[in-house]
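R.M. (postdoc): so does anyone remember the format we settled on? I'll just put the structure tokens first.
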């Protein structure tokens, strides 16, 4: 892996973590990366095209993973170069 490919992935993870609309979920099947999802409280905004960045509040107030609704896609942040969109059935 090149330094450039690692930097790109780190940048994506950093930007997702700064936006409270995105939450890190359980590890992927291979146990190396995490899935990112849209928090259920922000789902309506995304459906209606509101993609404004919400600043992350105190992480101690982060919602339970139980309150996060499954969505049809989640981004796999595993360390391989395969960034496919995962489909949930």
């Amino acid at each position: 892996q090149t330094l450039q490919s690692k930097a790109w992935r780190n940048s994506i993870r950093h930007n997702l973590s700064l936006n409270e609309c995105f939450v890190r979920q359980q590890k992927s099947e291979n146990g190396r990366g995490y899935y990112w999802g849209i928090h259920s409280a922000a789902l309506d905004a995304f459906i209606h095209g509101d993609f404004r960045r919400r600043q992350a509040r105190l992480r101690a107030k982060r919602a339970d993973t139980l309150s996060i609704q499954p969505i049809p896609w989640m981004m796999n942040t595993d360390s391989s170069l395969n960034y496919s969109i995962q489909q949930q059935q």
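R.M.: ...and that's the designed sequence above, right after the tokens. Also worth knowing: The chain has a mean pLDDT of 69. Helices lie at 3-18, 43-47.
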